[in-house]
C-alpha cells in the first residue's frame, strides 16, 4: 500500500495489516467477489490448499504444525460480508469505496460508516494464523462464508462434505471473556401492500424521523431502543386521528437485521397548519418515552412535491400494520428469564412501483415460538389485505451439556488473562446453527473481540481486545 497505514505500530503487525487490507475491499453482502479473490490470492501466495465456489465462499486448509499431526482438525470460521450502513450526510459508495479507518482512544472505527469488524475481525485473525509459520495447531480448515448478514446463504449453500473437522471456533462474537454456546434461529418476512395512487388534491409534506440509536435487531432488541419506522408510523397514525392525511411514500431502514435509525414519509394533507401541529405534538409525546440512547431523536417537516397519494383506506391499512405488527421482545426463556427467547423486528420499508413492502425478522431459540410469530404476522397481513412471505429461515444452535472446545476456551482464557470467562446463549443468529446442521456432531464455541454498536455507523472495535483475542485463539489451537 502506497500510503501510511492507519494501524501502523500496532502488534502483532500482521493481524492489523490484514484488517486494514480487507477494509479497503468493498464487501457488503452479495458483493463478496473482491474479498474472495483476495483470499484465493493469499492462499496461492502462501502455498496453501483452497477451495472456492460460485457464491464466493472460500475454504483454506493449513497442515498441522510439527507434533500436532495426530490431533483432530479444527475449523476456524467467520464471514467476509459486512452490514453497509452510513449516516445520511456521508458520501460513500459501498460497492466501490474502501472504508476510511480512524483510531480514537484505542478504538477503531470508520468515518461515517459501519466498520465491518463484524466480521472482518475473524477474517484478519484467520489470515494471520494461516500466515504464521511458528503457530502451533492441529490441521486447520479456515472457512470464510458469505451473505451471513442477509440470511446465511453462504453457509447454507456451501458443500460441507469438503470439511473434515468437527471442532469449530466461530469468530463472530463481540464480547471478550464470553463463550457463546447457543443462538436463536430466524427468518425474513416480506409484507406487501398493493394500492393505487390518486392525485394529492391538497398540500404535500415530507416528514422525517432521524437520530435514533438503532443497533442489531437480535443482540440489542432487549435494550428498548426506538424503531424509526414504527415511530414515524405512530406519529402519522396519531395525526390522522386529528386531521386527514394520506400516504404517498414510506421509506426507512436499510437492513432486515438492523433496528432502523431513520425513516421518512411523504403525505398529502388537507390542512397543512393542523397537520404540522399534530405531527409536532405527537413527536413531543414520543420523545418523552425514549431511552437515553435515543436522545438524538428528531422529527423534520418539509414541503414536498408528491403528485400522487394512496387512498385514506389504504393509508389506514398500512399504518395499522405498523401499529400492530409484533416488534421487540416477544418471550423470555422460562428457566432463565434474563435471556430473550423470541423477538421480532421491523427492519425495512419501501414504497415503489405501486407497493409498500415491509421487511420483518422474527427470531427464536424455540422453533415453535418462531412458528407462532410468523403465524401472527401472516394473520395480521391477511386481515389487512397484504401478502406475507417468509424466506431464508435458519436453525438455532442448541446448547451442548458437554463440550471439549468450550472447556479449552475457559482454560485458555484463564491462562492468558488470569480471569474467569463466562458462558452465554445469545438471541442473535450465528452460522453455528446452520453449520452444525450441515456437519452433524459438531462441537463449537463462538468468541470475538470487543465490538460495540455493530450494524450502525457508530461501530467500533477495541484494538487491545482484538490483539488479545487473537492470542487467545492461538493458545486454544495449541491446546486442541
Describe the structure.
- The chain has about 475 residues and is of the alpha+beta class.
- It has two domains: about 15-185 and about 395-480, Zn peptidases (Aminopeptidase, 3-Layer(aba) Sandwich); about 185-395, Alpha-Beta Plaits, CATH 3.30.70.360.
- About 30% of the residues lie in helices and about 30% in strands.
- It contains eleven helices and 25 strands.
- The chain has helices spanning about 15-25, 35-45, 115-130, 155, 230-240, 270-285, 310-325, 365-385, 405-415, 430-440, 465-480, and strands spanning about 50, 60, 75-80, 100-105, 105-110, 140-145, 165-170, 180, 185-195, 200, 205-210, 215, 245-250, 260, 265-270, 300-305, 310, 330-335, 335-350, 355-365, 385-395, 420-425, 445, 450, 460.
- A six-stranded mixed beta sheet has the order 1-2-6-3-7-23, sandwiched between helices. It has a five-stranded antiparallel beta sheet with strand order 18-19-20-9-21. A four-stranded antiparallel beta sheet has the order 4-5-25-24.
- α5 packs across α6 and α5 (about 230-240) packs across α7.
- The longest helix is centred in the last third of the chain and has 17 residues, at about 365-385.
- The chain is elongated.
- The two termini are about 35 Å apart.
- The mean pLDDT is about 95.
Amino acid at each position: 500500500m502506497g500510503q501510511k497505514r492507519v494501524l501502523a505500530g500496532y502488534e502483532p503487525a500482521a493481524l492489523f495489516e490484514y484488517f486494514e487490507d480487507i477494509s479497503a475491499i468493498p464487501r457488503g453482502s452479495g458483493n463478496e467477489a473482491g474479498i474472495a479473490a483476495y483470499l484465493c490470492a493469499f492462499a496461492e501466495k502462501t502455498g496453501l490448499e483452497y477451495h472456492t465456489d460460485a457464491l464466493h465462499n472460500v475454504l483454506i486448509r493449513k497442515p498441522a504444525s510439527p507434533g500436532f499431526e495426530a490431533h483432530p482438525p479444527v475449523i476456524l470460521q467467520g464471514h467476509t460480508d459486512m452490514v453497509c450502513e452510513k449516516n445520511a450526510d456521508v458520501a460513500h459508495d459501498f460497492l466501490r469505496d474502501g472504508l476510511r479507518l480512524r483510531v480514537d482512544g484505542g478504538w477503531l472505527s470508520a468515518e461515517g460508516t459501519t466498520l465491518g469488524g463484524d466480521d472482518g475481525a475473524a477474517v484478519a485473525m484467520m489470515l494471520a494464523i494461516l500466515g504464521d509459520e511458528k503457530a502451533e495447531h492441529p490441521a486447520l480448515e479456515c472457512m470464510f462464508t458469505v451473505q451471513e448478514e442477509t440470511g446465511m446463504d453462504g453457509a447454507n449453500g456451501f458443500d460441507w462434505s469438503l470439511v473434515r473437522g468437527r471442532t469449530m471456533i466461530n469468530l463472530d462474537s463481540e464480547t471478550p471473556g464470553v463463550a457463546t454456546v447457543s443462538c436463536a434461529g430466524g427468518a425474513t418476512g416480506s409484507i406487501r401492500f398493493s394500492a393505487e395512487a390518486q392525485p394529492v388534491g391538497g398540500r404535500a409534506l415530507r416528514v422525517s424521523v432521524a437520530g435514533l440509536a438503532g443497533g442489531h435487531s437480535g443482540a440489542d432488541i432487549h435494550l428498548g431502543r426506538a424503531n424509526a419506522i414504527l415511530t414515524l408510523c405512530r406519529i402519522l397514525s396519531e395525526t390522522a386521528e386529528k386531521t386527514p392525511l394520506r400516504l404517498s411514500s414510506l421509506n426507512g431502514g436499510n437492513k432486515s437485521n438492523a433496528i432502523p435509525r431513520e425513516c421518512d414519509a411523504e403525505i398529502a394533507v388537507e390542512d397543512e397548519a393542523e397537520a404540522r401541529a399534530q405531527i409536532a405534538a405527537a413527536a413531543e409525546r414520543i420523545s418523552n418515552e425514549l431511552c437515553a440512547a435515543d436522545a438524538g431523536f428528531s422529527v423534520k417537516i418539509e414541503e414536498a412535491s408528491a403528485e400522487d397519494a394512496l387512498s385514506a383506506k389504504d393509508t389506514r391499512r398500512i399504518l395499522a400494520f405498523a401499529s400492530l405488527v409484533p416488534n421487540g421482545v416477544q418471550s423470555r426463556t422460562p428457566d432463565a428469564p434474563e435471556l430473550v427467547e423470541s423477538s421480532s423486528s421491523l427492519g425495512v420499508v419501501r414504497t415503489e412501483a405501486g407497493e409498500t413492502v415491509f421487511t420483518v425478522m422474527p427470531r427464536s431459540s424455540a422453533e415453535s415460538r418462531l412458528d407462532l410469530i410468523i403465524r401472527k404476522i401472516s394473520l395480521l397481513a391477511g386481515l389487512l389485505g397484504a401478502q406475507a412471505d417468509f424466506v431464508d429461515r435458519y436453525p438455532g444452535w442448541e446448547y451442548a451439556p458437554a463440550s471439549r472446545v468450550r472447556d479449552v476456551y475457559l482454560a485458555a482464557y484463564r491462562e492468558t488473562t488470569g480471569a474467569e470467562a463466562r458462558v452465554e446463549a445469545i438471541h442473535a443468529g450465528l452460522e453455528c446453527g446452520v453449520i452444525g446442521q450441515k456437519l452433524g456432531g459438531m462441537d463449537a464455541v463462538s468468541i470475538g473481540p470487543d465490538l460495540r454498536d455493530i450494524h450502525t455507523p457508530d461501530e467500533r472495535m477495541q484494538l487491545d481486545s482484538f490483539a488479545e483475542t487473537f492470542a487467545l485463539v492461538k493458545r486454544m489451537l495449541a491446546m486442541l
